[in-house]
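__Record contents__

***
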Amino acid sequence: MKLKLLVLQRSVDGGTGTYAEGLLGLKKMFKPGQLIMKVLVLEKPLFRTINIREYSFFSQKREIPDKYSLNRKNIQMFIREGMWFKKAVQNFKPDIVLSSDPHSILISEAVRSLFNLKYKTISVIHNNLTKVINIRLGKYLRKPVKYSLALFLNKSDAVVTVAKKMSRDLSRDLKLRKIPTSIGEILPARYFEKRTAVETRGKEIVISTARLDVQKDHVTLLRAFKIVANKIPNSELWLVGDGPLKNQLKSLAEKLGISQRVKFFGWVQNPTKLLDSSKVFVLSTKWEGLPLSILEAMAGGIPVVASNCNYGPSEIIGKNKYGILVPVGNSNALAEAIVKLLSDGTKRKHYSNMAKIRAADFLQEKILTKYIKILEELFNIRYNRPDTFISEI
């Protein structure tokens, strides 16, 4: 027998794109022909280049809004997506469907219920769901979407979150029947391969790779860097990523008088060369799941400074063991931590070594082994077979 796994997600431009890349590593952990995978994506990527046959796209343009509202266009779009997904299920005939964001979870579970389809489901939550609902949804959508997610997560055959505390909070906030399984993000093997830096001409580079939106709080980072720039004359801030606040952030850099010291790189397919040119990685985020951007930096031994928000940074870094945590929105504390690392080579070396140690906990194979256990359990339940070929991997 073969296991057929269908992955459904909204986008592949951000962290979920790297997550899908990591999931595809499952094929190497099964015997040839034992696992058949396909990834369905609801919108064509704006940035990421993908030429892999396992991917299929619903839309050729970006249709899903950053902020949802209840209107005819969005309702029609959701229905069209659901019918496209239903057709894909009927053609592919998956044993298991894994949905990796709330939008996709609603589609997968709604289609399964409405059309009495027999696949098993895994619902994966990567972000702080309460924050996402409050920020991304219009006022009148918040309660019904929260109710629907609670209903469908309870119907899911397995629920996974990327952080332990998130699992407990999600179970409490949505009144789930059981606490979701916590499995860390998947760090693809390429981040541990030989990496090369770009020339910095003696600059002390501080870098942040993150979408330019309200969640990542680049406003606090720019204000902190103004302090850093005054104390470290040859310092420079590199911002890697794109998003709706790009022009506002450029204007703020001008207003703060640091525009000549701040570089906006836009979205970069593979940021490792830029990461490895930096002395410090910073994530000034307001909320998170388990940010892959931190792990990508740590894999290259880049010391990390991050805001102590729910959930991911504190779970990765611990009590300043593998990096430095600072209060959310505190530009002075953020600047102090950056200056400390730029000024103290010994401390920087210590956190570089600790970063590599911690990143190894999220190696692709280690994390995928945990997913295989869930796949095995659901496959056995579906076919009522206590021992299947998956156990032989």
Q: What stands out?
A: The mean pLDDT is 91.
